[in-house]
Design a protein that fits this description.
Layout lengths: L6 H13 L13 H15 L15 H9 L22 H17 L17 H18 L3
Helix pairs in contact: 1-4, 1-5, 2-4, 2-5
Length: about 150
């Protein structure tokens, strides 16, 4: 399972981010490429505890379901609503927004996986190791959405 704590996974995700263009067309969903870049940045900020979210009660807070969704099942395409806190940054300068995502990926990797981490709005309390997998899977999901 890819994780942002693995240098090779980070390098591959950052390579894909660098190949993304603002004109890239989504294969599913409603976001355009600049909105998606800001969305993944917001999600990384939530993981780092820089953006707080309110909890959403759902079955994914239960360990077996969370593990299944985080580690095994593919994420549904265009079916899961995004929490507002993970769509709070409007697109600005394309290069600056992509650089911010690359920086957030690097900053994520400096955190201790076994330390204290912010809760996830849907999954509730998650470990750093889980956040590493969630963020890598989330980035991969959206990069695939835009063909990179």
């Amino acid at each position: 399972m890819p994780t942002l704590f693995a240098a090779d996974a980070r390098a591959e995700l950052k390579r894909r981010l660098a190949s993304l263009t603002p004109e890239a067309r989504a294969q599913w969903g409603r976001m355009n490429a600049p909105q998606m870049v800001c969305h993944v940045a917001d999600q990384l900020r939530v993981a780092l505890g820089e953006v707080t979210t309110r909890p959403r009660l759902n079955f994914l807070r239960f360990q077996p379901f969370r593990q299944l969704f985080v580690h095994w099942l593919p994420w549904p395409k265009g079916k899961v609503p995004t929490v507002p806190e993970m769509q709070s940054s409007p697109p600005g300068d394309w290069d600056a927004d992509r650089a911010a995502v690359a920086d957030l990926i690097d900053r994520f990797a400096t955190r201790v996986p076994g330390g204290a981490w912010a809760p996830h709005p849907g999954f509730g309390k998650v470990s750093g190791r889980e956040w590493g997998a969630i963020c890598a899977k989330h980035l991969d999901h959206h990069f695939r959405q835009f063909g990179v």
